[in-house]
């Protein structure tokens, strides 16, 4: 483990639970606690709890903060309603992807009141996003503040996640039941260490129903105390309700998001490719009238030479990031961005960036698995959709 990797504020909790750690985005994070397959299945069948404190939290506030974010990011944020969140891209001047984000509207929307947003970047891109937003805020009445080091983040994901949180916060059970996808509330979480204020969002990265609990604090030490207290309270709430809740690491998080067809920065998304070639063109609405950074450089969907597709393995061997994708004649037509066996589906799956002329659903391709071509078929995304 690189000595420069930062520990999560909840690191002692993970050590006590016997976690195996890995470096991710410069953070020393739990990879798994036992069987990553068991952790994956727990989220699909019941509930799992994740420490996501490596993610960033950037506060953008001021009378023109919404308009500034309209300029700085791909999505329209100024019209986002209080209590709602939206997916967005932070693009470079060349129209490539600096990061993908979720933006939360935090103020109450009162006329003439202060606008406030929370921007959540990926762990390895916090500094780049803070720098970009700070530069793009120039000339706007908006302030950018990085609160990442003093915020912990705990996620509860899976079909029983709402029941876990209703047990944890019985006073808010009705509010939780009414909270819709990409909505958020500020709630009080009872813990052994006292009440903790949390922004509870119905968001996640697993393809299941779930919640993310943002726990702001005045210092990194306090963030650790609050995060640890809430983590313990979540585990105890599940036990009290008789719900199977499994501690989950990044390995399960990655296989879950892959089944759900969700992109990962550094794999599907990077500064070498534009949104239309990365499966996230929906985050760049053609109807957006406000000019934004990167807009002039974006090419139309019909002009993109490569697109992101889903691949289903017809054999048992899984493709991995960087493996070449071949056509029937053995010519290279693309590259795998993410791949693994699918625990839920029982066969290998992969995301790949391929030439548009071989991207149609049902097209038979091969992946070069260390010198041997294995059959894969282009399929629709997502690979897995949860039961509603």
UniProtKB/TrEMBL annotation:
Gene3D superfamilies: Aminomethyltransferase beta-barrel domains, Aminomethyltransferase fragment, Probable tRNA modification gtpase trme, domain 1. It catalyses: N(6)-[(R)-S(8)-aminomethyldihydrolipoyl]-L-lysyl-[protein] + (6S)-5,6,7,8-tetrahydrofolate = N(6)-[(R)-dihydrolipoyl]-L-lysyl-[protein] + (6R)-5,10-methylene-5,6,7,8-tetrahydrofolate + NH4(+). SUPFAM superfamilies: Aminomethyltransferase beta-barrel domain, Folate-binding domain. Pfam families: GCV_T, GCV_T_C. Substrate binds at residue 212. Its EC number is 2.1.2.10. Keywords: Aminotransferase, Methyltransferase, Transferase. The glycine cleavage system is composed of four proteins: P, T, L and H. The glycine cleavage system catalyzes the degradation of glycine. Belongs to the GcvT family. PANTHER family: AMINOMETHYLTRANSFERASE, AMINOMETHYLTRANSFERASE, MITOCHONDRIAL. This is Aminomethyltransferase. It comes from Micrococcus flavus. The lineage of its organism: Bacteria, Bacillati, Actinomycetota, Actinomycetes, Micrococcales. The gene is gcvT.
């Amino acid at each position: 483990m690189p000595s420069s990797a930062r520990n999560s504020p909840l690191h002692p909790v993970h050590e006590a639970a016997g976690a195996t750690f890995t470096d991710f985005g410069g953070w020393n994070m739990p990879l798994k606690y036992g069987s990553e397959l068991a952790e994956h299945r727990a989220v699909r069948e019941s509930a799992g709890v994740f420490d996501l404190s490596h993610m960033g939290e950037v506060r953008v506030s001021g009378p023109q903060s919404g308009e500034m974010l309209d300029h700085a990011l791909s999505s329209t944020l100024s019209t986002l309603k209080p209590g709602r969140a939206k997916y967005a891209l932070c693009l470079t001047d060349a129209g490539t992807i600096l990061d993908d984000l979720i933006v939360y509207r935090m103020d109450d929307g009162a006329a003439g009141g202060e606008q406030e947003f929370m921007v959540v970047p990926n762990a390895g891109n916090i500094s780049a996003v803070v720098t970009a937003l700070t530069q793009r805020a120039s000339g706007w009445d908006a302030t950018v503040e990085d609160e990442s080091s003093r915020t912990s983040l705990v996620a509860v994901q899976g079909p029983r996640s709402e029941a876990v949180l209703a047990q944890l916060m019985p006073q808010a059970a009705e509010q939780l039941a009414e909270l819709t996808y990409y909505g958020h509330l500020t709630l009080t979480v009872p813990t052994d260490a006292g009440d903790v204020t949390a922004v509870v969002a119905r968001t996640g990265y697993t393809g299941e129903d779930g919640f993310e609990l943002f726990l702001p604090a005045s210092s990194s030490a306090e963030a650790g105390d609050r995060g640890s207290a809430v983590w313990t309270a979540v585990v105890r709430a599940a036990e009290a309700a008789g719900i199977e809740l499994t501690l989950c690491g990044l390995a399960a998080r990655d296989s879950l998001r892959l089944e759900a067809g969700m992109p990962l920065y550094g794999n599907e998304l990077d500064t070498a490719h534009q949104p239309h070639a990365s499966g996230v063109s929906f985050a760049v609405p053609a109807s957006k009238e406000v000019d934004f950074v990167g807009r002039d450089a974006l090419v139309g969907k019909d002009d993109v030479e490569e697109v992101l597709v889903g691949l289903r393995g017809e054999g048992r061997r899984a493709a991995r990031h960087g493996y070449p994708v071949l056509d029937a004649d053995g010519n290279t037509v693309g590259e795998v961005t993410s791949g693994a066996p699918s625990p839920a589906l029982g066969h290998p799956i992969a995301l790949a960036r391929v030439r548009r002329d071989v991207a149609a659903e049902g097209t038979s391709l091969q992946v070069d698995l260390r010198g041997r071509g294995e059959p894969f078929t282009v399929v629709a995304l997502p690979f897995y959709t949860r039961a509603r």
